Amino acid sequence: MEILNFRTIMLFLGLLMIITGCYCLIRTYHMLKIIIGIEIGMKAVTMFLVLAGYINGHMGLAQAYVITVIVLEVVITLVAAGVTIGLYKKYGDMDIRNLTKLKG
Amino acid sequence: MEVIIYVSLVFLLIFCVMAVMSHSILKSAVYLALASVMLGVIMYVLGAHWAAVFEISVCSGLVTVIFISAISLSKIKHDEIQKLYEHKKRSAYLPAVLIIGGVLIAAAAMAADFTLPEAAAAISEEFRETLWNTRQADILGQIIAILAGGMAVVVLFQNDEVKK
Amino acid sequence: MDYLQYAAESFVLLPLAAIALNNICPKKFMEDHFHILPAAVSVLQMAAAVFALCFMDVRHLTAYDFSVLWNVSVPGAEFFSIHPVSIIFLFCIGLVSFVSVMIAIRTVDTKKRSYVSLLMTLLISMNCMVLVNDLFSLYVFMDVIGVSSFVMIAMFQSRKGLEGSIKYLVISELASIFIISGLAFIFMKTGSLSFKDVGSALLSDPSDSRTLLIYAALILIIAGFSIKTGAVPFHSWLPDAHQSADTSISVLLSGIVIKIAGVYGFVVLTTLFNGVRAIHVSLAVIGIITIITGALLALQQNHFKRIVAYSSVSQMGYILLGLSTGSTLGLIGAIAHVFSHAVFKSTLFTNAAAIHEQTGTLEIDEMGGLERKMPVTSFSSVIAFLSTAGIPPFAGFWSKLLIIMALWLSGNQVLAGFALCASIFTAAYFLRLQRKVFFGPTPDHLSSVTEIKGSIRFVEILLTVITSASGILFPLILIFLQSKGLV
Fold this sequence. Notes:
The complex is a heterotrimer.
Chain A: H1 6-27, H2 31-56, H3 59-91
Helix pairs in contact in A: 1-2, 2-3
Chain B: H1 2-21, H2 25-46, H3 49-73, H4 78-85, H5 93-111, H6 127-134, H7 136-156
Chain C: H1 3-24, H2 27-32, H3 36-58, E1 64-66, E2 80-82, H4 84-107, H5 112-131, H6 135-154, H7 159-189, H8 210-229, H9 237-244, H10 247-272, H11 277-298, H12 304-324, H13 328-359, H14 370-373, H15 375-389, H16 395-409, H17 413-437, H18 455-472, H19 474-483
Antiparallel strand pairs in C: 1-2
Helix pairs in contact in C: 1-3, 1-5, 3-4, 4-5, 4-10, 4-13, 5-6, 6-7, 6-10, 7-8, 7-9, 8-10, 9-10, 9-12, 10-12, 10-13, 11-12, 11-17, 12-13, 12-16, 12-17, 13-15, 13-16, 13-18, 15-17, 15-18, 16-17, 16-18
């Protein structure tokens, strides 16, 4: 089929990865798995940026974007891990079902 | 080139799904690192050499180190994690959601006759010139983000001196 | 001596200098006098905003481009730019930061140096977000705002603070992933993401299959910014995050962060993609649902700060309605509402801080009759309530009037009617709050409560004066805008 080139498949798989990341954020019970969900989403975004750079030829600009996104991803992982460790020290385990103090 | 991309994409998706579905958090971190390596391979083949090196060294290196230090700081023994979640059978929701979502997206794309065009002629711009000459505000943003992250480490990992 | 350039560069250089100074000076000195440095920076920022507006008006400029630490003459270099819209946002940032520092003098007891550093990081990222000219830099600074606010909420290591921070983190990062995916889809079609290259022209070629991508990108970007603004149905993080933070940080979050991270994104989106009818319809739908749901949910709450947080959700709906008209009058109404909401929301959180300091509780069922004990607090709270409900002559009346007039003139009479009737809900939940907290009989355990003194009282009086003065002087601003041909 003419429409099935690797670029379209890459876009499709990127969307599946974002769905995976959202599923992980919503359905997990372990606090560190939340960070894994965010990381998977950011990897999908990195893939989209590189694909965009490949399609329109501006690979230098796309790489600049990707590196900035990776730096932000590391900072966010660090802050999330810090808050999670703080919660572990208060509650004793990493279960997200302990967080019931603020009602919705 | 296309074969490498297809194989890496398949492995990337498999590793991501296994990272989400695994019951042991340590194995999830390892699967995430492997997924980063696969993504780095894809980026290298597409021509983003600098971004591929950065991705492999930072994401599958630094982020995995942060994860494993967070896991070890929480001091739950490895087999205790297994005991906590052993009674939960491995839920099959994620592959089901992915397959349904994939079918819906593929049907919508085929109905709209959607395709991405060929790669345009590569404009020869050097990545280092682009980053330092045209994206200075992003560099300022990165510096401020790293400052904020540094202060986060100081504030959040500090033991409280004041006893309640 | 280019004064305009000094005023413009100070928005970026002052917070950086403050961070450096804060960490270099000896710790004991900074901890004892920690409020001087950020208060000075905020006041200087407000002054610089006013001066920049005057200088730009004198020179008849509508936009001024500058760069801070790098050489702007290299071709293609990035630059910051100020227009009157961003100057009003910068003034609001300075005002709310000043209020936050004044509250922090009384409520922040530990980790004062880190508080100052994080506040300066938040300030510089908010300043740069309204100054940039590029969609990707907008995303970068929005993410840095997010990181700074997560750390500030979790900073004091209370159980509620950490829980609110992690809930806010998860949902805000989901929004960031949506926004950057949308930007990546736009980048697939055009070669760059700067403001001059992105516009409605992207949607003009229906035969190209990438137009479907641009529509998907718009959906993702609108969803992402709605989550950041706290619009319904993505509002669930907002009351938790704003209630569980320390009051000086709740002021920042509710008074300015949801507006810069969320509303300014919508302002950019509607300015770049003007004429796209789908954006106007979706913003109007989100706006009207937000107003009504926020007000109805606020009626059921029993915690002072939670009621105020739901009130923020409801007022964001008004701003989105103003932006959804697509006309200049709607934009002016929305920005006026940003300013008046910043002032009256800060007043309400200052009252919460005062009540918490003096009585030790924030559950409204335990309070009553505080009007006799704390007259200044109750007077400023009544003024803030009248401004929220849109009663003349306060600032909230004018901004709501502009939004409703813009809706009427652009043909959405039904929405204008709904927005007018929703003011009744606003009055309802605030009347309930006032009656339970300030009027009525005083319970016994509160009989020795006295009025708050010092910086919090000063801020309450200052904010009340600003609300009244800007309300009374608003017709002058309208005459000035009419002379420019904008109204």
